[in-house]
Write a structure and sequence with these properties.
By secondary structure, the chain is an alpha+beta fold. The chain is 22% helix and 22% strand. The protein contains 1 helix and 2 strands, in the order βαβ. Helix 1 links the parallel strand 1 and strand 2 (26-29). The longest helix is centred in the middle third of the chain and has 8 residues, at 13-20. The radius of gyration is 11 Å and the shape is flat. The mean pLDDT is 74.
Length: 37
């Protein structure tokens, strides 16, 4: 079983994009994201 070593909490879609480009194991949203119009 693998362990989560690096976890990133994000608050915007731009933070998600930046986090994905890094070598991370888990992304957690720290606030609700409103998508759409």
């Amino acid at each position: 079983m693998e362990r989560i070593r690096i976890e990133v909490c994000v608050g915007s879609l731009e933070d998600v994009r930046n986090a994905i480009s890094c070598d991370i194991d888990r992304i957690e949203l720290n606030q609700a994201l409103e998508l759409g119009g």
